[in-house]
Amino acid sequence: MVSSRDDSRLLTNSIHDCVVFRNNVSDYRDPAVTITVLGMACAAITAFLGFFQAPLVDPDSWNAPEAYRILYWHVPFAWSSFLSFCLLFLGSVSWYVKRSERGWSMVVIGSELGLLFGMGVVISGPIWGAAEWGVPWDWGDVRLNTYALLTLVALFLVMSLRSQPDGEETRDTLAAVGLFGFVLVPITAAATTLWTNRHPEVILRESEETGFDPEILQVMGFGAVSFMILFIGLVLLNYSIYTLRGELEVLNREIDEEGIN
């Protein structure tokens, strides 16, 4: 039997370990919070520049020339979502090859951020589409539908992570789904060029044919950098939270085992 004094001592030691660990994580979490806040502030500035600083496009070439301004968030959202699925892919490979806990954390974070940025795309896109095309979604456009499927993969992963018990079989299954999701990334990217319907083609460089105003490219570039900063901050912040959650689960398990003994 374990006396109440022993129970109290074990609990005190475990709490002390938690406090020490939390202090260590705080050293890592503080810059993550700073980077995330900076990214959010820059994203807000991007929206302001897009609506008030960026010039108007040629009204003869657009049905709703003012509505194009939402693209300053829509496009960086899409780029960030692709980065999230790249993170998901790397984590899935790392989990299969090394059974790495860090690799699994990349699967978790990649799927969550893929859903976050993916929802930003599928919400902002139809807003622009309704104004420019007259319909929010074109079910005959390959790019739109493959991207919707990509976002649904992220949604499935996030819901499964929250509803299924954590174990090796669950991780193997979800990592396989993550690999499938990443296959859709190059298909979605290629669909814009190979199967263009309503969705505009990707413009990689400025030329006389693109007709891009330099100010438009500057604001778009600022938006890309802003969302990149936000992406990095969210990755670091979510990793610190994931690590802290895992350590607390270990400490709780040790407390329960010591209590039984």
End-to-end separation in angstroms reads 7 Å
CATH class: Mainly Alpha
* Number of beta-strand segments: 0
The share of residues in helices is over 70%
Beta-strand percentage range: under 5%
**SS class:** mainly alpha
The DSSP helix count reads: 6
Coarse shape = globular
Residue-averaged pLDDT, rounded? 82
Radius of gyration: 23 Å
CATH architecture: Up-down Bundle
Q: What kind of sheet is the major sheet?
A: none
Oligomer: single chain
Examine the coordinates and then state which fold CATH places here, giving the name of the CATH topology.
Four Helix Bundle (Hemerythrin (Met), subunit A)
Number of individual domains: 1
Task: Report low-confidence residues grouped into runs of 5 or more.
Answer: 6-25, 203-207
Q: What pattern of helices and strands is seen along the backbone? A: HHHHHH
List the helices and strands and how they pair.
Elements: H1 4-52, H2 71-98, H3 101-132, H4 142-163, H5 168-194, H6 214-260
Describe the structure.
This protein is mainly α. It has one domain: Four Helix Bundle (Hemerythrin (Met), subunit A). It contains 6 helices and no strands. The chain has helices at 4-52, 71-98, 101-132, 142-163, 168-194, 214-260. The longest helix has 49 residues, at 4-52. The relative contact order is 0.17. Residues 6-25 and 203-207 have low confidence and may be disordered.
